[in-house]
Write a structure and sequence with these properties.
It is found in: Cell inner membrane. By secondary structure, the chain is mainly α. The protein contains 18 helices and three strands.
Length: 421
């Protein structure tokens, strides 16, 4: 979707300048069998850089290696935002329990099933051991850790509240992932059903209706008007099937490529999403919820308002709000209040502006923005439920008219067969 573009711009800004640290050594998975001093047999798996490291690790545990085999490296899965959110939650829990940072990262890395994620954490751990701060280590991987993530880690390290900020960050990521999942679930069902309906219609038009046409030609009587219309449509499908099937495929492919490569296509797509008759309101509420939660998280971490705007712009996930955030940043930089700056963009509801004004006047801006985010997240929940209940009967009606209409049109001549005879 076009919502990737602002986030991609933020990740680009988050990339560290200068040479990155050395690449961490690759770890492998070893299967081992061993015995303790009493001769009792043990076996298991261990991730390590070499056989020597496995022998040394097991020797510290009082075990003597009898058999050691390096497993063929499995092809790892793609690292997702869910992996990052779960890692953040685990790291917060371990730090709160008093486990040292490097040991916590090592425990999480060894326990993860995805080799790609294990390698990522190994590189981060290697950078920290080499003298980099945690934020610097994360910034070397902007594909997985955006500006918001790295800035909050930096604030947590400097303020000595890393565990608390990791917990807040994990909550933010979990809410964002849940919000995206809700929107996808609201979109996938109607798109899937309409795609199947289109495929069924094409099959009926190209293969089924021409067979009926051959039967009707032997009747020697005038066919009903609906039947003639459907047969004419079938003839058009048969003559131009390559266009009817190929045009949607080519169009969708070009649109997806445009979203990835063209900023103009991304901006136009984001503007269109916000103007859709049913889904536009849902997208707008989701963007506002993400925008306010991001700003609340940054502000609660002690990040200055102007500096927070770069992260907020990227996390908005929509070019319309990305541009609006940049305007707000410029206005706040010259002394305009946040409420007035937001009002000048004309993309925020009055309730958002009022809550922001109350937060500014009371000195509790982060709490007010968090309440706004929670309110709009509930609005998204209700909107998804309402759209689901509305879409289902609407799709049934569309399928009934489309498929049922063709079936009735084809059977009308058979109903009148007695009159022909």
């Amino acid at each position: 979707m076009a919502t990737r573009a602002p986030a991609a711009a933020a990740r680009k800004a988050a990339a560290p300048k200068g040479k990155p640290g050395r690449k961490a050594p690759t770890q492998y998975l070893f299967e081992w069998e061993g015995k303790d001093r009493k001769g009792k047999a043990f076996s298991g798996e261990l991730r390590a850089e070499s056989q020597a490291e496995v022998n040394a690790t097991l020797r510290k545990q009082g075990l003597t290696v009898v058999k050691l085999k390096k497993r063929r490296a499995a092809r790892g899965k793609k690292i997702t935002q869910k992996d990052i959110a779960y890692f953040t939650r685990q790291l917060s829990t371990m730090l709160k329990a008093g486990i040292p940072l490097l040991q916590s990262i090592d425990i999480i890395a060894r326990g993860h099933a995805n080799p790609n994620f294990t390698q990522l954490l190994s590189e981060i751990r290697f950078d920290i051991e080499s003298g980099s701060s945690m934020a610097q280590a994360f910034r070397r991987h902007p594909r997985y850790f955006d500006t918001l993530y790295c800035n909050l880690i930096d604030a947590g390290e400097q303020g000595g509240i890393l565990d608390a900020l990791l917990e807040r960050l994990s909550l933010y990521m979990e809410k964002t992932i849940a919000l995206k999942s809700q929107i996808k679930s609201a979109m996938i069902y109607p798109i899937a059903v309409l795609t199947v309906a289109f495929a069924v219609t094409v099959i009926l038009m190209i293969f089924v209706i021409p067979a009926f046409k051959g039967v009707f030609s032997s009747f020697g009587a005038n066919l009903p008007a609906p039947t003639l219309v459907v047969i004419a449509m079938s003839d058009f499908f048969v003559d131009n099937w390559y266009l009817i099937i190929g045009a949607p495929i080519i169009g969708i492919t070009m649109y997806i490529r445009g979203l990835k490569r063209s900023e103009k296509v991304q901006r136009a797509s984001d503007r269109l999403l916000l103007r859709l008759p049913i889904f536009g309101s849902l997208f707008r509420k989701a963007v506002i919820a993400r925008w306010t939660r991001t700003l609340a998280t940054m502000f609660a971490a002690g990040t200055p308002l102007v500096e927070s705007m770069e992260s907020v712009a990227g996390a908005a996930g929509n070019w319309v709000y990305y541009d609006a955030t940049k305007e707000i940043e410029q206005s706040v930089r010259i002394g305009t209040s946040l409420t007035n700056a937001m009002q000048a963009t004309h993309v925020f509801d009055s309730m958002v502006l009022q809550m922001t004004q109350i937060g500014e006047e009371s000195g509790a801006l982060d709490n007010m923005l968090l309440k706004v985010a929670e309110f709009y997240e509930r609005e998204v929940d209700d909107a998804v439920a309402a759209i689901s209940s509305l879409i289902e009967p609407l799709i049934i009606v569309i399928l009934g008219v489309l498929i049922g209409g063709m079936v009735v049109a084809m059977y009308l001549p058979i109903f009148k067969l007695g009159q022909v005879v």
